[in-house]
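In response to a reviewer's request, we include the raw inputs and outputs for one of the modeled complexes. The three entities were modeled together in a single run.
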Amino acid sequence: MPELPEVETICSCLRDDITGETIKEVWIKKGSRLLRDTVGPRALKKALTGRKIKALFRRGKYIIMDLEGGGALIIHLGMTGAVYLVDKSDKSPEHTHLRFELPGKSLLLVDPRTFGKVVFCKAGEERANVVLSRLAPDPFDESFTKEALLDRLRGRTLPLKAALLDQQLAVSGLGNIYVDECCFRAGIRPTRYAGSLDAEEAGRLHRAIREVLEEAIRCKGTTIRDYRWAENSSGEFLEKLKVYGKEGQQCSCGRTIEKTRVRDRSTHFCPGCQK
DNA sequence: AGTAGGACCTGGTGGC
DNA sequence: TGCCACCAGGTCCTAC
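The model returned the following structure tokens for the whole complex.
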């Protein structure tokens, strides 16, 4: 499940290989659900063919491919999406939705469960994109401070877990796995009301979010089920998880990790370490 | 406006 | 062995 560290890893792996390259040809899966929120396949093909890739970067969990001369392709990988390069001679695997022919290589977007999506923004409309303009600060953005975090959570009556999963509320880029890990590192129960955090706790949470994500990026993400950061490679953060998927196991403090549900999402915490 | 909960989707898994 | 219910969760939609 691609969250911020996985998306960051994908971008940094692909960046050098595709920046400056021209999209020679575009193939789109017939009736692809990933295009449900953007222009039709014919228009998309026309908009991309012959264009040079100017930059590839990330905002929250979104991948943004800037095109030379304006315009951008915004990609969200949902739960099971993957973007990677293959040889030109390689066949597209099952569930390939998009294939760009680049000089010497092919760029694939593969997504079995089609929770992901692709949106094309015309020149000058990139900043106006509805999704991106509403996104909460990126955890590594200067504007993401402990004061801003406290401020955004203040007065909220929803569970902290739900607040951190909301990409528009306090911080963007966190998903189910990293929210649990960040709350554990901060020593705060994810079931608490978001507005109940004091300044000291918000400071701990702020630091935990940056530390956990930095470490996960160094590990090239977490591999659980279908996520791969590139073809035939997997992240190593799985081994560093402290609570996610560890229910019934012993925490280093001696207590047993518990699993509960918050807003219908599996939620893991240590009753000893997290108040 | 804030909050809650269901829908979407399909591969993998475990029970029978 | 085969079948099937169930689970995973990011985001969007609707209801209150």
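As requested, we also summarize the result in words. The beta strands of chain A are 25-28, 53-59, 62-67, 72-76, 82-87, 96-102, 105-110, 117-121, 258-262, 265-269. The longest helix of chain A spans residues 199-218.
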